[in-house]
From TrEMBL:
Identification of the protein by name: NAD(P)H-quinone oxidoreductase
Keyword Chloroplast: no
UniProt keyword terms in alphabetical order: NADP, Oxidoreductase
Taxonomic lineage from the root: Bacteria, Bacillati, Actinomycetota, Actinomycetes, Propionibacteriales
Gene3D superfamilies: Medium-chain alcohol dehydrogenases, catalytic domain, NAD(P)-binding Rossmann-like Domain
Pfam families: ADH_N, ADH_zinc_N
């Protein structure tokens, strides 16, 4: 099969399409003919040599895809050859075929075409597991989403808005702020020329209840300033670095929580439980069109390098796809 391989750690130019052996499936696994794969920021790190796949996972980059079931391994129930699905992957998405643990396979939501479905697994699983399963956002509470126009952010805004929460978000341009408002954000803050802590203080009664943070170190102190009493900060990204000082006194007085999680490295059982919860709670909203996958741009598989360069430019909104 054709797959995208990084010939060596480096820039987008190291991504090359190569012929490699088809993946073999074992018990509990399904072989998928890939229709499209979604790009994730972690893919850029993996290409640069900083984010190796977890033990046992494919070396091929790609943490989500959509496609058609081509074969079903022993002990798999509920899936048959020819079914259309989308999948959360530990790796292997940038290829014509991928082996997937059956629990990480999800049906294509009603009303979504097969290619677009590749844009949903990572954002749905990340947002649902962090904002709702871990931080327990409630309908009457306020969520601050950093990077609201990105793949994760655009899904988080819609989901929290549809489930009845107030949503505050940050983005880096007037166009992106307008896109966030159109998706349901109540307050949109330009992180380039506004201080989000000041705006949160003006626009809320004592701060936000939950923050979904992509910046890590750079925003740690200010995120705690923006939290309301008993607020929960969930850090899922390190775009602003990994090391910062935590003012425990400030956090303690707010009785706040700081949580950091990642999805890819978790055991198959945990990822399968998240996928099942996503299908139960998120899919109905997608099927009704209340929460929509936002695809900014698609590239053919052979142009994976151009797709990475585009994501690195920061010009995109929503998800970037590779079509196979
Ligand atoms: N832990 C996990 O399990 C997990 C899973 C999936 C993703 N993630 C992480 O989640 C983050 C978002 O992923 P993605 O796929 O949505 O990537 P993306 O589409 O490339 O979005 C990146 C976002 O970062 C925003 N940003 C850049 N500088 C910022 C700043 N100073 N303040 C606030 N926002 C800023 C960008 O905003 P503008 O475009 O408006 O400039 C953009 O919305 C990444 O860090 C990714 O690694 C973590």
């Amino acid at each position: 099969m054709r797959a995208v391989i990084a010939t060596e750690p480096g820039g987008p130019e190291v991504l090359t399409v190569t012929e490699i052996a088809d993946p073999e499936i074992g018990p509990g696994e399904v072989l998928l003919d890939v229709a499209a794969a979604g790009l994730n920021r972690a893919d850029l790190l993996q290409r640069q040599g900083f984010y190796p796949p977890p033990p046992g996972a494919s070396d091929v980059i790609g943490m989500e895809c959509s496609g058609t079931v081509a074969a079903v391994g022993p002990d798999v129930t509920g899936w048959s050859v020819g079914d259309q699905a989308c999948a959360l992957l530990a790796g292997g998405g940038y290829a014509e075929r991928v082996a997937v643990p059956a629990g990480q396979l999800m049906p294509v939501p009603d009303g979504v075409d097969l290619v677009t479905a590749a844009a949903i697994p990572e954002v749905a699983a990340t947002v649902w597991s962090n904002v709702f399963m871990v931080a327990g956002l409630q309908p009457q509470e306020t969520l601050l989403v950093h990077g609201g126009a990105g793949g994760i952010g655009s899904f988080a805004i819609q989901l929290a808005h549809q489930l009845g929460s107030r949503v505050v978000t940050t983005a880096g341009s007037a166009d992106k702020l307008a896109a966030c408002t159109a998706l349901g954000a109540d307050v949109a803050i330009n992180y380039r020329d506004q201080d989000f802590v000041e705006v949160v203080a003006e626009q809320t009664d004592g701060g936000v209840d939950v923050i979904l943070d992509n910046m890590g170190a750079k925003y740690l102190d200010r995120n705690i300033d923006a939290l309301r009493t008993q607020g929960r900060l969930v850090i899922i990204g390190m775009q602003g670095g990994t090391k910062a000082e935590l003012d425990i006194n400030k956090l303690l007085r707010k009785r706040g929580a700081v949580i950091a999680t990642n999805l890819r490295g978790r055991p198959v059982e945990e990822k399968s439980a998240i996928c099942a919860s996503v299908v139960q709670h998120v899919w109905p909203l997608v099927a009704e069109g209340l929460v929509q996958p936002i695809v900014g741009r698609s590239f053919p598989l052979a142009e994976a390098g151009a797709a990475h360069a585009y994501m690195e430019s920061g010009d995109h909104s929503g998800k970037i796809l590779l079509t196979v």
